Task: inverse folding
């Protein structure tokens, strides 16, 4: 008989959440794996690196960076945005092993950037630009994957730039594909898209992930078309290296050439990779946080540290540079992932597929994977997003649309730069209109103007305040009230003091109330600082 003091078994919340999240994370990892596999290979091919180098970066990005990252949904791996830099670096350095040294040094630089808290720059990307970048990536996925869905695979699957390596651009490639499409690829991609859209809506069937059904269908149909005029060609299939034994597997790895550490060009390449990869990562995690259903916030400095360690590890064993990649991360979110276990599992699956089932993986048509990316793109660039941004006002909608157009017509970083320029324009415009509060009081034959400054008066307010002060009529009493101000920028203070000094020439009497000679930036409390740093 149990004693009255005996307690019921305690409910382990962590175990419950882990089990609950695994039901989402495991299927999601399969989707990310299927998306990442050809992207890793395509980016390696476009970068002029060994195909295995792309897989190394994907594996390290999933397991190492995924484990260290503070992001729950971001997926790291080789990025299309770095292909031009990597191709140029390998060519200029003349030896892939010397390039690996540059990559290791780039990882060290990223680690340093994280330690000195440089990741906080990611907090200054405007929401309209990030939303525009996401919508643009969605459009790019749709436009770029259409040729692959039609069975024309002259350009690598993960290409995101407008001008392609096959001398086509985004739009001409679609026209070219329409003229030489493969009936088998079209059938596979159409059926795959329909399955991806409707399979999850059937509760009795969605126990099995839709992408697995798509892959099984693709393999079955490609086998069925063999021996017919419509059979898929080798370039229309996934092609990972087939390893023969343990020695063959070990032989695929490369080590950096540390004897070239004194080469100036190596350090230039390292700095370039570190800066570009860090910017793409910060943009990537900011975008992923926007589409996270739980709205978690990724610690940016920790992310740079994780990316730095990941790139060091990738470089040490022969891999490509990596960043947080929006395409894979978006597929991860769209597949229903909840924690970083999905990212880690996808890295493990990449490794296992290479070692255990390369022959089976090479039977997957690229049209299947293009279909997965088409659906991902559709989710990112839905019409409702454009409507929502329009209703937020022109100061949000115009930078959003211009970011979309610029990213589609150039590349990710250039497009974001265009969006940032227009966002800054609207920021300055807003500050011109609202840097202070003021009211005009009439007393007798003279005007008394009281200008009440806001809590924070930054350098951005300087021009607007100068315009206001210059427009004050002669022989006016002006009171500049800083009682609400917690901080006034030194340049603004100089403007105010200079105006007071010279105003008497116009018969203007200036009185300063609660305006100090110097202000210090308000300090955050220690708890907030610690949270920001982490």
Result:
């Amino acid at each position: 008989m149990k004693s009255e003091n005996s307690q019921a078994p305690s409910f382990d919340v962590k175990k419950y959440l882990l089990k609950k999240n695994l039901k989402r994370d495991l299927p999601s990892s399969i989707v990310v794996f299927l998306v990442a596999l050809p992207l890793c290979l395509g980016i390696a091919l476009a970068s002029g690196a060994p195909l295995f180098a792309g897989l190394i970066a994907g594996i390290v990005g999933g397991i190492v960076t995924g484990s260290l990252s503070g992001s729950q949904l971001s997926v790291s791996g080789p990025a299309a945005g770095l292909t031009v830099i990597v191709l140029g670096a390998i060519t200029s350095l003349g030896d892939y092993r010397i390039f690996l040294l540059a990559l290791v040094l780039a990882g060290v630089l990223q680690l340093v950037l994280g330690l000195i808290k440089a990741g906080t720059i990611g907090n200054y990307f405007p929401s309209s630009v990030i939303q525009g970048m996401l919508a643009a990536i969605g459009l790019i996925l749709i436009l770029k994957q259409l040729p692959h869905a039609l069975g024309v695979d002259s350009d690598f699957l993960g290409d995101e730039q407008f001008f392609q390596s096959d001398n086509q651009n985004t739009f001409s490639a679609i026209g070219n594909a329409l003229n030489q499409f493969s009936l088998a690829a079209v059938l596979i991609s159409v059926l795959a898209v329909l399955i991806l859209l409707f399979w999850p809506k059937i509760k009795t069937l969605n126990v099995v992930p839709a992408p697995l059904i798509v892959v099984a269908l693709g393999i079955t149909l490609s086998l069925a078309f063999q021996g017919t005029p419509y059979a898929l060609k080798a370039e229309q299939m996934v092609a990972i290296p087939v390893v023969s034994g343990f020695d063959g597997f070990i032989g695929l790895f490369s080590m950096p050439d540390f004897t070239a550490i004194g080469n100036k060009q190596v350090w230039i390449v390292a700095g370039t990779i570190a800066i570009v990869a860090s910017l793409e990562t910060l943009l990537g995690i900011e975008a992923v946080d926007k589409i996270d259903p739980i709205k978690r916030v990724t610690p940016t400095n920790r992310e740079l540290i994780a990316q730095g360690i990941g790139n060091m590890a990738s470089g040490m064993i022969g891999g490509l540079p990596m960043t947080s990649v929006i395409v894979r991360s978006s597929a991860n979110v769209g597949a229903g992932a909840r924690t970083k276990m999905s990212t880690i599992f996808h890295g493990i699956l990449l490794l296992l597929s290479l070692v255990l089932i390369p022959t089976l993986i090479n039977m997957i048509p690229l049209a299947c994977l293009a279909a997965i990316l088409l659906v991902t793109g559709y989710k990112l660039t839905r019409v409702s997003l454009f409507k929502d941004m329009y209703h937020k006002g022109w100061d949000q909608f115009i930078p959003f649309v211009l970011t979309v157009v610029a990213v589609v017509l150039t590349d990710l970083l250039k497009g974001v730069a265009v969006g940032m320029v227009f966002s800054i324009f609207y920021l300055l415009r807003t500050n011109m209109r609202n840097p202070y509060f003021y009211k005009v009081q009439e007393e007798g034959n003279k005007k008394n103007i009281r200008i009440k400054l806001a809590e924070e008066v930054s350098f951005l307010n300087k021009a607007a305040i100068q315009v206001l002060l210059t427009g004050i009529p002669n022989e006016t009493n002006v009171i500049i009230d800083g009682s609400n101000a917690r901080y006034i920028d030194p340049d603004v203070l100089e403007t105010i003091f200079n105006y007071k000094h010279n105003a008497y020439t116009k018969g203007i009497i200036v009185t300063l109330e609660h305006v100090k000679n110097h202000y210090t930036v308000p300090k955050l409390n220690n708890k907030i600082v610690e949270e920001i740093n982490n």
Q: What stands out?
A: The longest helix spans residues 13-46. The two ends are 51 Å apart (CA to CA).
